[in-house]
Amino acid sequence: MKMKAHTLALSLALLLGTGHALAQSQDSGHDSHHTTASSASDMTEAEVRKVDKAAKKITLKHGQIKNLDMPPMTMVFQVKDAALLEQVQAGDKVRFTADKVGGAYLVLTLEPVKN
Ligand SMILES: [Cu+2]
């Protein structure tokens, strides 16, 4: 089990090293609490900043994304399905799930949050 956890921590570090190194600061993710880090089922809260339907992209000011070990920030995501963008617009509060696919951060599910 120890080896498995170590391997996971290594791959997490590799993932984080590519896109989010600048925003990642000190927390290397090595002494990881993320033994089930591959679960993408945790919804993350966010506020929509920009929607680009043509490019299938959305800019989100998001909270911590546990399964990606990502701190809160504003960033651009690809969306899996452009239809996800039909229901939201800039300024909306949303909940979403995301994963890293093929080197890009991809929004898998997205739903508006009613206040
Ligand atoms: Cu981010």
General description of the model:
- The chain has helices at 2-19, 21-24, and strands spanning 44-52, 57-62, 73-79, 93-101, 104-112.
- By secondary structure, it is an alpha+beta fold.
- The protein has a 5-stranded mixed barrel with strand order 1-2-3-5-4.
- Mean pLDDT is 79; it is low at 21-39.
- Copper (II) ion is lined by residues 62, 70, 73, 75.
Distinct small-molecule ligands in the complex = copper (II) ion
Strand content: 25-35%
Work out the count of structural domains. 2
List the quaternary state of the chains: single chain
**CATH class placement of the largest domain:** Mainly Beta
Summary keywords:
alpha+beta; binds copper (II) ion; 5-stranded mixed β-barrel; 115 residues; 2 helices; 5 strands; OB fold (Dihydrolipoamide Acetyltransferase, E2P); 2 domains
